Amino acid sequence: MTPRAMQRIALSILIAATALSLVPTIYMVDISLRTAAHSFDPVLIAARPTLANYVVVLHSGHLGRFFANSVAIAGGSVALTLFAAVTLSFAIARLKIRFGRAILLLVLSALLLPLASLLIPITVLLKNLGLTNSYFGLIGPNAALGIPFATVIVNEAMAAIPDELEEAATLDGASSLTVLWRIVVPLIRPALIVVAIWEFLFAWNEFFLALVIMTRNAMKTLPLAPLYYQGPYMTDPGKLFAILTLIAVVPMILYACLQRWFVGGLMAGGVKG
Amino acid sequence: MAAGASRRPGLPRPGARRRGAILGAGRWEAALYVLPAAALFAVFIAEPIAANLVSSLIGPHHRWGLGNYAMAAADPVFGTAVRNSLLWVVVSLAFEIAIGFALAILIELHLPRGRAVFRTLLFLPMVVTPSVIALVFNTFYASDYGLLYGLFRALGLASAFPALLGAPATASLAIIAVNVWQWSGFFVLMYCVGLSAIDREHLDAAEIDGARGWNRVRHILWPLCRGTTTSLVVLGTIQALQQFPLIYLMTEGGPADSSQTLATYIFQTGFVQDQMHYASAVAVMLFLLALALVAVEYRLAGGGLSLAAKRARP
After folding, report:
1. Which residues in chain A are contacts of B104 at CB distance < 8 A?
2. Cα–Cα dist A46/B308, whole Å
3. How far is CA B103 from CA A118, B70, B186, B190, in A?
4. Confidence of residue A269 (pLDDT cuts 50, 70, 90)
5. Structural domain count of chain B
6. What CATH number is given to the structural domain containing B273?
7. A45-54 per-position pLDDT tens digit
8. pLDDT for B7 beyond 60
9. Are B112 and A7 a contacting pair, CB within 8 Å?
10. Cα torsion angle, B89, A191, B227, A263, sign
């Protein structure tokens, strides 16, 4: 088979696979554009789309509040994860602390923890600490669970930095904090972006903990919104699906804008040493 | 890293420091850098693990011991949950790896341009909140008005599959299919990263030696992506074991507990039936199952994990 023919076959298969994978998303958007009369039609695209559902949904209550909660929790989780992973990796990869490798292995082993197995004790803990229905009640566990993956990526990137760079700075009398902030962090930016995007997606979409921690409506995050609206819009799925579409579209657009850096960071495997 | 060896002689050695360390940071200063991660780890991971283990040992009638574990061994729903959790891991991984590896080869090695478009579009399901996905697929699968039902009716299959989520035989598989749909794009992307790290010259040399088509996939590309595969198998195992929202929102573990997994059963026993100590024992066993599966996978792969791209060597 000529490379040219192979390219054409590859392209056709990829287009078919991508189209298939987009079907549920298209279906979701289309139901959100239907009038109540057509919302139960078993077809991919119904006739006569309307934006009326969005007008109703955007004027009704809590969605803005859920969104703000999600932004605060995802933002806080990203910041705390990055801070903890960067400082830990700095101690291991650059300061070469004693037992660094053992600490790294311990942190890595937490990658093997299914969140479900921690759900009950974390809930009990947060209740005892008075952190249910608080932002930190989700930010803390999110960051702790995000540290293992973040440390793998950040540590690898930091270990690749040549010693000479910081040596020169140290000889100039720079403190370790200056070296970290001025020299190390700018060099590992691609890795930090990968971690930030990954942790954001994880925190933004986290459902299990949020379900049991955020019991007050004012504190709920977007992943809980479908549950909240499922009842009221049972007979009018157009409106429910308008809400689902709004929730889904935000991270989709965000990822489409940022994917260049995400993929680039993954492919670079940290920084060029 | 041989920091000391690479230093040119004659340079002043900065301050007191540990051998091999580059910076002149003292031990206490270094400890401060470990503190944030250590504190989060201690409070939100170590303490919960310990508390969970202790809680699981408080058996029926508040008697200490392995009573909860004995109860689980005799509990038919627990058995179903274990079987379904294993089904989740095996079926999810088989499809995710096959789809991910195949599409990544097409994207990385057979497309002259437009790679980023496919990588991005295929990845999009990954960024959508599972609770949204669950409700979309509830409608998608719904008998009478779902899109899939419409397709089945057109093909004359509607009577053979009256309700995918409502039948014990198909409920789990129908939800696993959704999980595969969501995660395949991630597997595609990671295999793209793995394939892009392979030396082009190495591939060209192999092609001259006659490694083409299936032979090239089997004997060149697959072995070179082993690190990626091992990482994905481990990540995919944990992901499948902890999947909760899809099952909770699509079947709630039903009908008649037939799609219960360990993750949903922890929620069911702990929060719905209010048997916290029993749920803790189920959680400990989920953790042990995860460890056992990863240990087996790691042995089968012969070790070697790589999360980011590395230069693959033949």
Report:
1. none
2. 43
3. 35, 46, 11, 11
4. low
5. 1
6. 1.10.3720.10
7. 877 888 888 8
8. no
9. yes
10. positive
Contact A255 B120 (CB under 8 A): yes
Q: Does A138 touch chain B (CB under 8 A)?
A: no
Q: Which residue has the tokens 């229905």?
A: A133
Q: Cβ contacts of residue B46 below 8 Å, gap of 6+?
A: none
Q: Which of B103, B129, B196 to mutate against chain A (most A CBs within 10 Å)?
A: B129
% chain B with pLDDT above 70: 88
Helix (H, G, I), strand (E, B) or coil at B251: coil
Is B236 within a domain? yes
Q: Is B76 inside a domain boundary?
A: no
Write the residue in A10, A28, A144 that is nearest to B111 by C-beta. Answer: A10
Residue B309 clears pLDDT 90, i.e. is over it = no
The residue to which tokens 């024992």 are assigned: B281
Q: Which residue has the tokens 């554009």?
A: A33
Burial A120-140 (b: 16+ CB within 10 A, else e): bbbbbbbeeeebbbebebbbb
Of A84, A240, A255, the CB nearest to B36: A84
Yes or no: say if A198 and A149 are a contact pair by the CB < 8 Å rule. yes
Chain B CB contacts of A69 under 8 Å are none
Tell me, what's the ipTM?
Answer: 0.90
| Residues 209-238 (B) with a CB less than 8 A from some CB of A | 213, 234-235, 238
Domains, chain A, ordered by start: 64-232+253-268 (1.10.3720.10)
pLDDT tens per residue across span B224-244: 898 899 989 999 999 999 999
Residue B237 is assigned to a structural domain of this protein:
yes
- Given an 8 Å threshold on Cβ–Cβ distance, is B146 in contact with A223? no
Q: Is-contact A24 B181, C-beta < 8 A?
A: yes
Q: Inform me whether the C-beta atom of residue A185 falls under 8 Å from chain B C-beta atoms.
A: no
Distance from CA of A134 to the nearest CA of B (A): 15
